[in-house]
């Protein structure tokens, strides 16, 4: 992992967009690793660009097949090297071809300057102007889309669908990422151009070192030596004040004029040799220097664009939430559903029998007696109170139950919440009643009957549950 | 347990302990059951290094427990040691498993949030619970969970006032972000040492809520951006004009589906933002926007617009001209000084070729690729007819035709209806706490109606927001830059949502 998480690359952006599009979310392990790598307890306040990039790197390490950002970065790096190499080769061969000298005619410095310096510089300016005009990349972007689309639309269904989805994503994020596409591509062209000038410069220097080349200008329209000298001075202005010998003097310009009548021999050797430092200066300053500045400027713009990446759209917001987690994070809870049991079968209670009634704390004996008569068709002969939610306090009531011969009815309010203490109390009543009938009359809210039935079944309470008003 | 301030949410079964925890944590993954006693293990919640919260099982046998350890705890100089001994003695035996589990965070230093349901009367078991909690000696705050009719509120307040350091009302089913922050602030009063982290947590919670609303506003604005500029294009070859109605119908259908899909995507994003897993939108048979459609036809050659055609001409012309020039230069056919002929030939050839073909492509390409639906003019000349025949032949051979573009929707009300439906969902989500366990299937149309009833629809927006919205919509529709209109609209909408979202929202789940 690199040390500077703030320096994004186009590959990082591509991978992040791919992850957005695929709806990928960070796993718990990734979140934990992220929290550990940023700073403990500082994940939420860490800059988004830092969090996102760390996550992209994590994903890239585990998901190389679907994330191609690293490859894109590598391609760009290789393309830059190739651009330099191609430029160097093209420049060296162009200048070499141009400087081929057979002694019939001198090498014309004006043409050399025109084709190897001025035209390439104009091409560079044209490319930059186009890049600026197509800032949103809508023209070239749409054109490139059409070219690739024309091919992809002839592919099978899946490939076509993938392509169309990609186009949709690219179109949506055009504003966000256009500079990241435009600037590197323009940068490549400028590397070719800079390499071209450098190659031409090296070629020129090699030639003048190892060959005797005569430079001489010629003109049909009759431009004077003063005119050419003035132009040369203007062109050489950036360096002539430091290296005055790198710009031919008026006398040297005069002495290096070629005419077919005079032939090459008429050109003074000193005057002829005064041109190559000028041409080398032109290539170094207007060719190499100017492009180098443009390359630096484009690199700076690219870094600014990468630094200014906007992570405030909804997909970024969602990712940030997923990475930082909720403010209050719940640890997984173990589920312990109460196992279902079987409800005891309903028993027919013969009418006219005498019942022992166990009342809970809040019930009235009159109400309970009516309920017994209504639900069981019997009468209450004994009433005892039971602390239904305090099994340890019922020794006296349980003794009465054990001593009685009557069937037992427990009058239980449905509003109470079923808890273990109630289960224990009821189990104790069942145990104390022996083999006699034992029922629970659940009074109150009928909607809670299902809850109590589930409770009885889950705890295997062998008691019949009868709802009463 | 860590060194963070810790709180154990304790209470009788079914009084809403887990609901309070779920609402505070905004998590519907917290186990909440109507069946008492299903929470048997503590669940821990951590608030970003600020505090811990423990959801505990409810008391199952507090009266017996009080009887078992009450006298010893009262007489002891270290009552917590009595509880510790009780827990180690009774753990796993079955009689007091829930009590042993709920004591776990208390024995490790947690303060107590005692949750009571004020719709239920005070029973003796509640008094036993309160006494047990008092005997632990831990800082205590009572929380009145008023999710139902608080018929016993006064009695509870009177009793809790005697036993607890503070009493705080908190409706776990209706608590807003502000209410949750207030509960945290109330918790901060239990210990001077814990004041700062708890207050920081309360501030973070409110900030997080505002950020949530801002994120929601972003989702709404992006929905508008996409919906108002969405188009669907199909290519109709000129030699297949008879399929035009079918192509238009299929493209229109696709247009509606994608628009509906985009709206559904925004709704899902809102639901995910508020972390409600039990809420979903019902799919609609036909979008409300299935009217008011704008259809456009543009000519294309191979689906290529004129400027792309010009560029293609430029490229092909340049390459061809360059190649010819190169060949001429290499062959020495150009009279130039040494080495110049190749460069000059290439550059000049490329320039001439590019310019010629670019101009030719635009002029002739457009002429050839007339719209597929061609209406004959009165008095058409022989030349026109010949040209048309030639164009038809070219179309047959090259697949030249028409691009049919469906959309974007132009209706004035369309964006506002779209906004209101999403706003309605947003208000519902904001008002629904995570303690609720009912599955909600929402209908966008009814959400809009509810929003209208609440007086929170876009039509009722304040002037500056309405104006910012209108400017943004105009910029979108005129394909102008939204670099200025968008941030302003977003900012005002986010601020407005903070006001709107707090209003009661009269949506009843069907």
Task: Write up this protein.
The complex is a heterodimer of chains A (469) and B (510). Chain A has 469 residues and is an alpha/beta fold. In chain A, 59% of the residues lie in helices and 7% in strands. In chain A, strands 3-2-4-5-6 form a 5-stranded parallel β-sheet, with helices on both faces. In chain A, helix 15 (365-376) links the parallel strand 2 (354-359) and strand 3. The mean pLDDT of chain A is 83. Helices cover 54% and strands 11% of the residues of chain B. Chain B has 16 helices and 11 strands. In chain B, the strands form 3 sheets. A 6-stranded mixed β-sheet of chain B has the order 2-3-1-4-5-6, sandwiched between helices. In chain B, strands 7-10-9 form a 3-stranded antiparallel β-sheet, with helices on one face. The two termini of chain B are 44 Å apart. Mean pLDDT of chain B is 81; it is low at 333-338 and 369-377. The interface between A and B is large, with 62 and 71 residues.
Question: How would you describe this structure in keywords?
Answer:
heterodimer; A: 469 residues; alpha/beta; five-stranded parallel beta sheet; 18 helices; 7% strand; rod-shaped; B: 510 residues; three-stranded antiparallel beta sheet; 16 helices; elongated
Radius of gyration of chain A, in angstroms, nearest whole number? 47 Å
**Could you give the order of strands across the largest sheet of chain B?**
2-3-1-4-5-6
| Protein structure class of chain B | alpha/beta
C-alpha Rg of chain B, in Å?
Answer: 36 Å
**Biggest beta sheet attributes of chain B:** 6 strands, mixed
Secondary-structure element pattern of chain A, one letter each: HHHHHHHHHHHHHHEEHEHEHEHE
What is the count of helical runs of chain B? 16
What is the β-strand count of chain B?
A: 11
Give a quick precis of the structure.
The complex is a heterodimer of chains A (469) and B (510). Chain A is of the alpha/beta class. Chain A is built from 18 helices and six strands.
